[in-house]
Design brief:
Number of domains: 2
Helix content: 25-40%
Number of strands: 12
Structural class: alpha/beta
């Protein structure tokens, strides 16, 4: 693009300096002596030589190429990319929270431990669980942690034949992956014509080898599993456990609780539902809650309260052990705590109601222009299909690329796998009606382009810095280093 600032390597001029380092204030050491010459450079690293202003403009230009919730609508289905209130950031940066050390004496960080304890209590109440650990670093890490506790529970009971975990055909990809890493074999249960778990197929696959059923409710199609109590009875009746993937909790906060549905384990995505920064590789936070019979297996330590003092409880002989160094991603926990305390019960209920209302509004606006595989009320997200457009030679991938020309991040595409040419859209509660209408208008415009001028969609994007990539080549032979032209 003509307005882009030149890349930093092309702007390099010998002798320019972008830094001014302070004088050395520690004793100088001989690196050859300390490192034995193994890791000591013999020549300069060849970094670009630029001024401070050049450097600032370079990184500012790069930042403008990124898309984020603060810069635009981010309808990424199943990821809950909603706005992160800046007051949460201010709280996380308070000196007493940001500048403490995880190895401090617990008596000197009672405020931080109180925050962790109270966050555990808040999440316990929200989910209907009996105890919470804040250790896991992300959702998939929470899944693995929960499955390891289920495994430890069965082994403690001598039930070592329970080696299989059931997942729906619409499940998040992390579910079977986490089960495999935890040492289980995965079994798929089919969805019925309504997009819900097929109860008869569930009865068929549940047996004495079943360790757990993993699913989220509402499911990945954005539909509430209305037979969840019966599903829990089927799994529990066979001696298995029910695991709740918390990725879709944004739809039901303060409206329904996984623990009341019959789930034994639940993980939460604080970087989704509870407004920790999401994307860019983290950090995330995936607390796990359990029912009473699984409490002994929680990772240690757990923050507990003894009289008027908060303590770090390491005395848990049946624990699966640590799953994360120190105390989890504390900064994300602080943000979640600030969000929950700011919103309160009524506010969290309004969040869910707003997310569901927004999703249903968009679904009905788009229904005349795309195929709607499940014509029923959705929860916080919904799926539409580009099958109609595919018949005209335009794929869902093309539609997603065309959205880039209008400044929108595309929704999730081709997932779940059981919907052909799938687009999964999650507007969240934080977007205005004007934003929802503008996005719907754009998708409707693209749908009309497919009928009148399909080439413009097939060749999109047209306005981005980089156009279509050879996706196969990019996946198999990625270029990960700067290459001067």
């Amino acid at each position: 693009m003509a307005t882009d600032f030149p890349l930093i390597f092309e702007h390099s001029k010998e002798g320019r300096i972008a830094h001014s380092l302070p004088d050395l204030d520690v004793p100088e050491v001989d690196l050859d002596e300390v490192l034995g010459g193994t890791f000591v450079r013999t020549e300069a690293p060849g970094l670009p030589e630029v001024s401070e202003l050049d450097l600032i403009r370079h990184y500012t230009a790069l930042s403008k190429r990124n898309h984020g919730v603060d810069s635009g609508f981010y309808p990424l289905g199943s990821c809950t990319m909603k706005y992160n209130p800046k007051v949460n950031e201010q709280v996380a940066r308070l000196d007493g929270l940001a500048h403490i050390h995880p190895l401090q004496n617990p008596k000197t960080v009672q405020g931080a431990l109180q925050l962790m304890y109270e966050l555990q209590e808040e999440l316990r109440i929200i989910t209907g669980m009996d105890e919470i650990t804040l250790q896991p670093a992300a959702g998939a890490h929470g899944e693995w942690t929960g499955l390891m506790m289920i495994r430890a529970y069965h082994e403690k009971n001598g039930d070592t034949k329970r080696t299989k975990v059931i997942v729906p055909d619409s499940a998040h990809g992390t579910n079977p992956a986490s089960a495999t890493v935890a040492g289980f074999e995965t079994i798929t249960v089919k969805s019925d014509e309504n997009g819900l778990v097929d109860l008869e197929d569930l009865r068929r696959v549940v047996n004495e080898e079943t360790a757990a059923l993993m699913l989220t409710n509402p499911n990945t199609l954005g539909l509430f599993e209305k037979h969840i109590v019966e599903m829990a009875e089927i799994v529990h009746g066979a001696g298995g456990k029910l695991y709740y993937d918390g990725a879709n909790l944004n739809a039901i906060m303060s409206k329904a609780r996984p623990g009341d549905m019959g789930f034994d384990v639940v993980h939460l995505n604080l970087h989704k539902t509870f407004t920790g920064p999401h994307g860019g590789g983290g950090p995330g936070s995936g607390p796990v809650g359990v029912k009473e019979d699984l409490i002994p297996f929680l990772p240690k330590p757990i923050v507990t309260k003894r009289e008027n003092e908060y303590i770090i409880d390491e005395d848990r002989p049946q624990s699966i052990g640590r799953v994360k160094p120190f105390w989890g991603n504390f900064g994300i926990n602080v943000r979640a705590y600030a969000y929950i305390r700011t919103m309160g019960e009524a506010g969290l209920r309004a969040v869910s109601e707003g997310a569901v209302l927004n999703a249903n509004y968009m679904m009905r606006r788009l229904q005349p222009y795309f195929d709607l595989p499940y014509d029923t009320h959705c929860k916080h997200e919904f799926v539409i299909s580009g099958k109609r457009q595919k018949k005209l030679g335009v794929r869902t991938l093309d539609i997603a690329k065309r959205l880039l020309d209008f400044g929108y991040h595309p929704p999730t595409i081709y997932f779940p796998l059981n919907v052909e040419e799938c687009m999964m859209i999650e507007p969240t509660e934080t977007e205005s009606k004007e934003t929802l209408d503008a996005f719907c208008d754009t998708l409707i415009h693209i749908a009309k382009e497919v009928e009148e001028n399909p080439e413009i969609v097939q060749e999109a994007p047209h306005t981005t810095v980089i156009s279509r990539l050879d996706e196969t080549q990019a996946a198999r032979k990625p270029v990960l280093r700067y290459q001067k032209a």
